[in-house]
Specification:
The protein has 124 residues and is mostly helical. Helix content is 73%, strand content 6%. Strands 1-2 form a two-stranded antiparallel ribbon.
Length: 124
């Protein structure tokens, strides 16, 4: 059974994203993030640490998921535009757009929750 061209293109784009995007935030400069040293208790002895690394990984993952949601918007729009009057393709395109929109809402909500959680944990 042959895979459609769209599935192959999505897999290629996902592989490029997975192997190129996550590494740049992990190498970013986190010198402005100051935490207390767990051994001495003095502020500013270490920079970033595990919470900063976790935050960067979460931001990278949310960026990838956001890119995938954008691809779903494009796919749904293409389905709808190329439906050619076929009701089932129009419905399929609309459903893809609706679910991509709901996915974006979930992505933004999860980003807000994670940001609020990290701010409350690091400020207190």
């Amino acid at each position: 059974m042959k895979k459609p061209l769209f599935v192959k293109l999505v897999l290629i784009v996902m592989m490029v994203i997975l192997f190129s995007v996550p590494y740049s935030p992990l190498l970013a400069d986190t010198s402005d993030v100051k935490l207390n040293n767990p051994l001495t208790g003095k502020p500013g002895d270490i920079t970033g640490g595990v919470p900063a690394l976790i935050g960067q990984v979460i931001n990278a993952v949310l960026g990838i998921v956001g890119s995938l949601a954008l691809l779903m918007f494009v796919y749904g729009g293409l389905l709808w535009m190329t439906a050619g009057g076929k009701d089932e393709r129009v419905t399929q395109g609309k459903n893809v757009l609706i679910w991509a929109t709901l996915g974006m809402v979930v992505i933004f909500a999860s980003y807000a929750i994670v940001k609020l959680l990290f701010q409350s944990l690091t400020s207190g």
